[in-house]
């Protein structure tokens, strides 16, 4: 079961997207005005299934018992956060690494514990603190730790190889398994599942408060919030919560400088409309397909609008109606890897991350991390379904205020990703209304140079930058690790800027 879920929609979504589009219509009815909507019975199915799926996968385990060093110190509210140093590198002393794993007891939950990794910078504790959030919703950040921008990569024999382009080369790096039920995070109470960004961002803000209380030596460092895929929702919501807390002088002041979204889902109305244009431009569909599938866009837009003003059922309806666009494209595309259209899927899940489950289920690794009997699952369908009502919400709406207050925003996207393609991301960034929007739109497009070669093309004005990364799919740090590290380094140093006046064309 764990292997089957090793890439449950990888770092984003569409648990039903890979199936035929006919299944998407199974529970749809057509109203008199031509709009599509879910039948009332069908709209309740995803959430009704959530508890059964979670129990089946042991994500709310009956006996969730991390080793006593965690469980005992967290019990009864004695401590909110407990961590330990560890080493997974053979022959390297624990004290030489600055690698930590921990559990945080969520204060606004009944019995939830959030698992995290913390990797000190390989160069200086004065480097910025960067927190990474993997999407899903419900996919573990361990996917990024071991396959993207963490200190290690997993070799075929399950040994760990140093990643020369890990983001700990330029930052003190935190990965969090969130929301509750993701990865090693767990609860014994199903009410601790989160259903929206208010719950998610609140938990993350509480975590940062506890983290900086435990590590006051990092509290004054610059902080950057980063993430990928469904983190296009998490990241701006989290940044807004931190900014709000700072303004209200809640707890420890957090030195938030910026946030970055990689191949994210942020403004669904604009991004779903871009699917057909991207697919046509990349030769995935033809003109006739483009015209046919585009007829689904107006019902999608109407459904998203209702989601923004109504409640649960309307948001579930929007999820189903709009994903018929993506499903129809995939019916034509066949076995294409929708995370990297240059490739075919390797099996039903497009990538093979089974080494991750095998590694994290080794006794020596579990002992080192202190996770006890909490079962690791790469991606949780229960968390995914619990967040379905959040899916079609527009998270762009909170970003202009952050830009106005000088919080720097980087939106980047690999050019060969279909599911969160660069075109849709570029369009919502350009459509965003803020004081610098006209100047951003008219600013020149310039090459992003790495080692004398063009690694991407970007556009910047003031605190806002958009970067399209060449030769990369959905997971930019995995496909272009050197360029991704250089992007992070320059951005956090305020040096991600125009390299020449040479014009490029996005649209």
UniProtKB/TrEMBL annotation:
The cross-references to Pfam families, in alphabetical order and at most eight, read: Peptidase_S10
User: What does UniProt give as the signal peptide span?
Assistant: 1-19
Name the enzyme's class: hydrolase
Superkingdom as given in the UniProt entry:
Eukaryota
Please give the SUPFAM superfamilies that the UniProt record associates with this protein: alpha/beta-Hydrolases
Q: Which GO terms describe its biological process?
A: proteolysis
Entry keyword Protease: yes
Family annotation (InterPro entries): AB_hydrolase_fold (IPR029058), Peptidase_S10 (IPR001563), Ser_caboxypep_his_AS (IPR033124), Ser_caboxypep_ser_AS (IPR018202)
Query: Keywords assigned by UniProt?
Result: Carboxypeptidase, Disulfide bond, Glycoprotein, Hydrolase, Protease, Signal
- Molecular function as annotated in GO: serine-type carboxypeptidase activity
Q: What is its EC number?
A: 3.4.16.-
Q: Which family does it belong to?
A: Belongs to the peptidase S10 family.
**Name of the protein in its database record:** Carboxypeptidase
Q: Which organism is it from?
A: Iris pallida
Source species taxonomy: Eukaryota, Viridiplantae, Streptophyta, Embryophyta, Tracheophyta
């Amino acid at each position: 079961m764990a292997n089957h879920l090793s890439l449950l929609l990888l770092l984003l979504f569409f648990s039903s997207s890979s199936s035929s589009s006919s299944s998407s219509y199974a529970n749809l009815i057509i109203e008199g005005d031509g709009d599509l909507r879910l039948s009332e019975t069908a709209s309740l199915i995803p959430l009704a299934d959530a508890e059964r799926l979670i129990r089946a996968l042991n994500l709310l385990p009956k006996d969730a018992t991390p080793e006593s060093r965690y469980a005992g110190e967290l019990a009864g509210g004695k401590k909110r956060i407990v961590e330990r140093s560890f080493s997974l590198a053979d022959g390297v002393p624990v004290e030489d690494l600055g690698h930590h794993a921990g559990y945080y007891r969520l204060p606004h939950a009944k019995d939830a514990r959030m698992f995290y990794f913390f990797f000190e910078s390989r160069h200086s504790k004065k480097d910025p603190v960067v927190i990474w959030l993997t999407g899903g919703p419900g996919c573990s950040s361990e996917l990024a730790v071991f396959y993207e921008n963490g200190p290690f990569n997993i070799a075929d024999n399950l040994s760990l190889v140093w990643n020369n382009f890990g983001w700990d080369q330029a930052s003190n790096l935190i990965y969090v398994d969130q929301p509750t039920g993701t990865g090693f995070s767990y609860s014994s109470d199903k009410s601790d599942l989160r259903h929206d960004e208010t719950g998610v961002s609140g938990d993350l803000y509480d975590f940062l408060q506890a983290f900086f209380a435990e590590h006051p030596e990092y509290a004054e460092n610059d902080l950057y919030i980063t993430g990928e895929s469904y983190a296009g929702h998490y990241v701006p919501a989290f940044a807004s919560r931190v900014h709000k807390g700072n303004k209200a002088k809640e707890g420890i002041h957090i030195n938030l400088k910026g946030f970055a979204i990689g191949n994210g889902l942020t403004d669904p109305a604009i991004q779903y409309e871009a699917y057909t244009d991207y697919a046509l431009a990349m030769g995935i569909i033809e003109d006739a397909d483009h015209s046919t599938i585009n007829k689904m866009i107006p019902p999608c837009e109407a459904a998203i609008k209702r989601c923004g003003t109504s409640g649960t059922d309307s948001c579930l309806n929007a999820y189903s109606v709009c994903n018929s666009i993506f499903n129809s494209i995939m019916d034509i595309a066949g076995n294409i890897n929708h995370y990297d259209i240059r490739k075919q899927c390797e099996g039903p899940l497009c990538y093979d991350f089974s080494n991750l489950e095998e590694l994290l289920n080794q006794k020596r690794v579990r002992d080192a991390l202190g996770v006890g009997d909490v079962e690791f699952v790469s991606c949780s369908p229960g968390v995914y379904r619990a967040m379905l009502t959040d899916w079609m919400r527009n998270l762009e709406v909170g970003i202009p205020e952050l830009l106005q207050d000088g919080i720097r925003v980087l939106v980047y996207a690999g050019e060969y990703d279909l599911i969160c393609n660069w075109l849709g991301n570029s369009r919502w960034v350009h459509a965003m209304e803020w004081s610098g929007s006209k100047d951003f739109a008219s600013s020149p497009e310039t090459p992003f140079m790495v080692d004398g070669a063009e690694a991407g093309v970007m556009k910047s004005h003031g605190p806002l930058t958009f970067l399209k990364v060449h030769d990369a799919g959905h997971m930019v740090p995995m496909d272009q690790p050197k360029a991704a590290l250089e992007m992070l380094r320059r951005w956090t140093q305020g040096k991600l800027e125009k390299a020449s006046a040479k014009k490029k064309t996005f649209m």
